[in-house]
Give the backbone structure.
Amino acid sequence: MSRNIIIIGAGLTGAVIARQLADSGTCSITLFERRDHLAGNCFTFRDPASGTMLHKYGPHIFHTNDTEVWTYVQRFALFEPFKHRVVARYQGRDYGLPVNLDTINAFYGTQFTSDEARAFIASRCLKLARPAANAEEQALSTLGHELFNAFYKGYIAKQWSRPPSDLPASVTARLPMRFDREDCYFGHKHQGQPRFGYTALVEALLDHPAITIHTETEITRADLRDADHVFWSGPLDAYFDHAEGRLGYRTLRFEELRAPTPIQGRAVVNYSDPDVPWTRIAEHSFFTPWETPREAVAFREYADDCGPEDEPFYPIRLISEKAILARYIERAKTEKNITFAGRMGTYRYIDMDIAVREALDCAAQFLRAPDDMPVFSASPI
Ligand SMILES: Cc1cc2nc3c(=O)[nH]c(=O)nc-3n(C[C@H](O)[C@H](O)[C@H](O)COP(=O)(O)OP(=O)(O)OC[C@H]3O[C@@H](n4cnc5c(N)ncnc54)[C@H](O)[C@@H]3O)c2cc1C
């Protein structure tokens, strides 16, 4: 028997679920995508003028410790080795991020060894006898005042339009602090970029006779009839027509820069000073170092709260959003034959490897027990 499956969203989540169900030979899949392209927020395209592979919704780098996920994505795309390096520009000088031994020595004008740097930073840190109450306390207890103020305070305030003291500790809980000279941004075992971009990866995932794709088709709850099961990777609140209010997101605006020669000569520069209005500049040809662009293209990034017409990027997840989220979770539990998945279906920031992992697990669960599917592919809380 072939099961009739509807999938909403052609990002990595929708594409991996579609592919896994199609490969099982037991499902016929119809996938709907609101935009005029595949790949969701990972969408890349070749810029005609410069020849550069551009990342429309901000630069993406694949990094993971999950070897099964790494092996899986390589079935569908050739990955080139890529190590991401970021600098923070603060008061006209560049410093390596995440903060590492070289950052500490350059910033303080010292020549510490690892052990000396560790002891020195410990002496600058806020000592708390209780868990950090907010993002500022959390960062101060690992970086100390000077490093936090220089590299993160202004950046976070711009990224969130809120002072770090108003944000939950989780925002800064994952800021790495290194006492060696490793300047690679991610610490993961597997890191790379698909040679022909993320759109080609998603196209390859969806290239299966059991999958029918409709782009430029926005689906609402009322459209969902006659399916054995629906996988919804669009916004959770949109499914319920925002009946409980809007879940807050941050959106991004990109300002394009072009020049005949490299603009900043590296992939990403973060701007830590609060009086610089953009958060960072990404020069996209540096995400494909095996290619030579005809001209340089870079984007200044500005962050803002997301209005109804804007693209939602980062879930805000402050206390008020969590209250709204709890109400949507209760509503979702009363729905039948639907699973909310991916970054917007579960209202969480997730990296691409997590999106792939959760989609693989979600599809496997469906194939094992289709009548016993959870309403969320992962807990939104
Ligand atoms: C600026 C930025 C940079 C990032 N950089 C990285 C990085 O370097 N590395 C990394 O691992 N991760 C990165 N990520 C995270 C990455 O983008 C996500 O992991 C990934 O996009 C999740 O895929 P998804 O399919 O769950 O969601 P999406 O990619 O958002 O796909 C959902 C799709 O559903 C469609 N849709 C929504 N509603 C409807 C509807 N009603 N009807 C039809 N279609 C609908 C949307 O148009 C969208 O295409 C970054 C995220 C952002 C915001």
Remarks:
- Residues 8-14, 32-35, 40-42, 57-58, 60-62, 218-219, 233-234, 238, 252, 313-314, 342-344, 350-353, 355 surround flavin-adenine dinucleotide (CB under 6 Å).
- The two ends are 36 Å apart (CA to CA).
- The chain has two domains: 3-82+190-246+316-372, 97-173.
